[in-house]
Amino acid sequence: MALFDSFLTRQQQHILKIKFMPSLMFYISKTIYITCKNEFHISNYAKNNNFIACLWHGNFLMMPYLYAKIKDKPNMSLITASHNDGAVVELYFKKFQLDSIRGSTGVQKGGTKALIQAIRELKVGKDIAVTPDGPKGPYKSVANGILLMAIKSGVGICGCRVKPSRYWELKTWDKFCIPKPFSKIDYYVSEPLFFPRDIDIEEAKNRLICYMQKLDNL
Questions:
Q1: Cα 173 to chain centroid, rounded
Q2: Half-sphere CA count of 82, side-chain side, radius 13 A
């Protein structure tokens, strides 16, 4: 937000961003959803069981509309970053009655508390959404947090993707995707990926990367 640096402090910019950005994102996404042709391809597992939703950071804008087609009653927490951008995402998801867990998907980045809370919620039947390449990348990388959640809880990971026929792609590290109004959007939730409790973490990471690549290629 360098454009505003001459007349607003960074703290003032953060306050304005948190105050107005979630509502702006909500109205933009609502307009997109209403004007687009939306088609859903959802695994029965996700409809009938709690699951870990795995989605790339740049693909989260329309995810609340996908989740509304999976479950009649909101029962999900999203892992969001502990910094100010995480607050924006948290407030955006709150507009859809979805909860958030503030923290990181990398346990080495201080995300241990978030990981423990996520596993606790999974064990009582709640869905958890994770952007494994968030909050700052690298693009489409996988941090260990989502792997540990799946291994320790025994809950399946379901890859989620929003694929618009026409879209804008922002020049951000995550290549943030904004579908264009009056386009077609396909929403995908894949069949689950499970990990045995004794799996090596690097093997689990490679399996998840291959699993998400197949989803990306649809």
A1: 15
A2: 11
3-state DSSP assignment of residue 55: coil
Helix axes 144-153, 112-123, angle to 10 degrees: 30
Provide the whole-model pTM: 0.91
% of residues, the chain, pLDDT over 70:
90
Distance of CA 78 to CAs 115, 134, 143, Å? 12, 12, 15
Place of tokens 């799946």: 150
The Cα–Cα gap between 77 and 60 comes to: 13
Phi, psi of 43 (to 5 degrees): -70, 145
CB burial of 78-90 (b: ≥16 within 10 Å; e: otherwise) equals bbbbbeebbbbbb
How many Å apart are CA 73 and CA 12, to the nearest integer?
37
pLDDT in tens, 18-64: 889 999 999 999 999 999 999 999 999 999 999 999 999 999 999 99
> Any long-range contacts for 98-105 (C-beta under 8 Å, 24+ apart)?
98/64, 98/67, 98/74, 98/129, 101/77, 101/128, 103/79, 104/79, 104/135, 104/143, 104/145, 105/79, 105/130, 105/131, 105/132, 105/134, 105/143, 105/144, 105/145, 105/146
Residues 6+ apart with CB under 8 A from 11: none
Q: If you ran DSSP here, which 8-state letter would residue 58 be given? A: G
What does the alpha-carbon distance between residue 128 and residue 13 come to, in Å, rounded to a whole number? Answer: 30
Sheet with 184-189, strands from edge to edge, namely 37-42, 184-189, 157-164, 52-54, 127-130, 76-80, 99-102
